[in-house]
């Protein structure tokens, strides 16, 4: 990576996620200047955040320095900064390190947790979209278990030992399964004074099935696995209110809980400065078949923040890494076509399949019309996620952790590195 000032067109990429990284890599050795901006100096492998939250992995196992990813790419520079606003008329952006000009701007800012406008849920529930949030969640779980040991009030103790996961997508399913395994294999040894049977894990989903985008067979198998592991699954159930102590749901049940883990939806992270006409459902940017943002010819969006409602995907492409990576690779080609005044090519998404793990030897995989479940699906899930991690060290450390956990039935990172507090969580949220 080298910071050079040339007369080549300047492409500014905001966001070092899957899409932004793929785009930048495909522009290597081309006659362009590439500048990547991100508020973190690392890339996060979000599919494994739940393992950080439940003590299965340390945070640095799923994070990788962005500068190291591009250390050999001479036409790319990186700046660790927060982007405040876009000024399309003068082709510049305002950041915490000053104003930056661009010839082409690419928004790969990803998504954030959707609390559906509820300040109450935003304040009292725990999201898990970033590493700081996953570490907060880990600390909260462990702190509440420690507090439950000394709590004499039965109602308060019950709340400390009830865990509620809201949202039955892959994150919610995987988090619920991980909590169940934590309860079964770890907590009984770590907390012998606790009545482990009094720990309850609930999974609440507003629709009729878990894992909505997957096949009916996988949906059924995932629910069966979870219930077999002791998770109380509630479908066709929505959250009505939560005050930090009691959760009200639409089936009339009140759950005493201090642990509500929110994974019920996402919204795009849109930077101020673009017209409201360019923003669609889910606060995602409306883009055409070459990822150009509606109303602009030099601003593009890829990944979770982009809504390309074409063909078989009227509500946009799924918010998964392969979709973002394919959009990044495709946009790299079209940016070069635009620079050279050549004809652009429309984007076509290749669905590589879907998968989710529920726990040890339990997973579901959809590959077209082929469906796997159980231990074989679990091995497929592990292999795909292991190979997708950035850096050999991260792959090796994660693999060793998984092998150790498999044979020892243990999770080795049950550490409260930084004590959790609502004030700390609010601070992290405002800095995002």
Please give a structural write-up.
- With 432 residues, the chain is an alpha/beta fold.
- The protein has two domains: 10-39 and 81-113 and 267-339, 3-Layer(bba) Sandwich (FAD/NAD(P)-binding domain), CATH 3.50.50.60; 119-264 and 360-430, FAD/NAD(P)-binding domain, CATH 3.50.50.
- Helix content is 34%, strand content 22%.
- It is built from twelve helices and 24 strands.
- The protein has helices at residues 18-26, 49-53, 66-69, 119-124, 131-150, 154-161, 170-190, 216-228, 321-339, 375-388, 392-408, 422-430; strands spanning 10-14, 33-38, 42-44, 63-65, 76-80, 83-87, 92-95, 98-101, 104-107, 111-113, 162-166, 200-204, 232-234, 239-242, 246-249, 254-256, 259-262, 266-268, 285-286, 299-301, 306-307, 354-359, 362-367, 370-373.
- The strands form eight sheets. A five-stranded parallel β-sheet has the order 5-2-1-9-20, with no helix packed on it. Strands 13-12-11-17 form a four-stranded parallel β-sheet. It has a three-stranded antiparallel β-sheet with strand order 6-7-8, with no helix packed on it.
- A hairpin with a 2-residue loop joins strand 7 (92-95) and strand 8 (98-101).
- The protein is globular and about 70 Å long.
* CATH topology title of the largest domain: FAD/NAD(P)-binding domain
Helical coverage, percent range: 25-40%
Total number of distinct structural domains: 2
CATH class of the largest domain: Alpha Beta
CATH architecture of the largest domain: 3-Layer(bba) Sandwich
CA(first)-CA(last) distance:
26 Å
Poorly predicted runs: 426-432
User: If strands are numbered along the chain, what order do they take across the biggest sheet?
Assistant: 5-2-1-9-20
């Amino acid at each position: 990576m080298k910071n050079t000032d040339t007369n080549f067109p300047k492409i500014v990429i905001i966001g070092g996620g899957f899409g932004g990284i793929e785009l930048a890599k495909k522009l290597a050795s081309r006659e362009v200047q590439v500048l990547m901006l991100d508020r973190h100096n690392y890339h996060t492998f979000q599919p494994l955040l739940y393992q950080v939250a439940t003590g299965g992995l340390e945070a640095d196992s799923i994070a990788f320095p962005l500068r190291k990813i591009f250390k050999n790419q001479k036409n790319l520079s990186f700046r660790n900064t927060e982007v405040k606003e876009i000024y399309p008329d003068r082709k510049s952006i305002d950041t915490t390190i000053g104003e930056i000009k661009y010839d082409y701007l690419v928004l790969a800012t990803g998504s954030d947790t959707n609390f559906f406008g509820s300040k109450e849920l935003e304040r009292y529930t725990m999201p898990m979209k970033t590493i700081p949030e996953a570490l907060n969640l880990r600390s909260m779980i462990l702190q509440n278990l420690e507090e439950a040991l000394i709590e004499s009030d039965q109602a308060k103790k019950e709340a400390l030992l009830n865990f509620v996961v809201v949202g039955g997508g892959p994150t919610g399913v995987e988090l619920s399964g991980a909590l169940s395994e934590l309860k079964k294999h770890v907590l009984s040894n770590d907390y012998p004074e606790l009545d482990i049977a009094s720990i309850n894990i609930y999974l609440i989903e507003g629709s009729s099935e878990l894992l909505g985008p997957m096949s009916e067979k996988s949906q059924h198998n995932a629910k069966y696995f979870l219930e077999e592991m002791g998770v109380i699954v509630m479908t066709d159930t929505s959250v009505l209110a939560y005050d930090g102590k009691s959760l009200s749901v639409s089936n009339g049940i009140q759950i005493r809980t201090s642990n509500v883990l929110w994974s019920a939806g996402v919204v795009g992270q849109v930077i101020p400065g673009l017209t409201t006409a360019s923003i669609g459902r889910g606060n995602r940017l409306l883009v055409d078949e070459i990822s150009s943002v509606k109303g602009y010819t030099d601003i593009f969006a890829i990944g979770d923040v982009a809504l390309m409602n074409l063909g078989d995907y009227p509500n946009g492409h799924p918010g998964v890494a392969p979709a973002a990576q394919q959009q990044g690779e495709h946009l790299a080609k079209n940016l070069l076509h635009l620079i050279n005044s050549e004809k652009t090519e429309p984007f076509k998404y290749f669905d590589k399949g879907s998968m989710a793990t529920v726990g040890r030897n339990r997973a579901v995989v959809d590959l077209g019309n082929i469906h796997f479940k159980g231990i074989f699906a679990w091995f497929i899930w592990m292999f795909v996620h292991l190979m997708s991690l950035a850096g050999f060290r991260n792959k090796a450390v994660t693999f060793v952790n998984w092998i150790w956990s498999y044979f020892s039935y243990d999770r080795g990172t049950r550490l409260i590195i930084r004590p959790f507090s609502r004030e700390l969580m609010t601070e992290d949220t405002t800095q995002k």
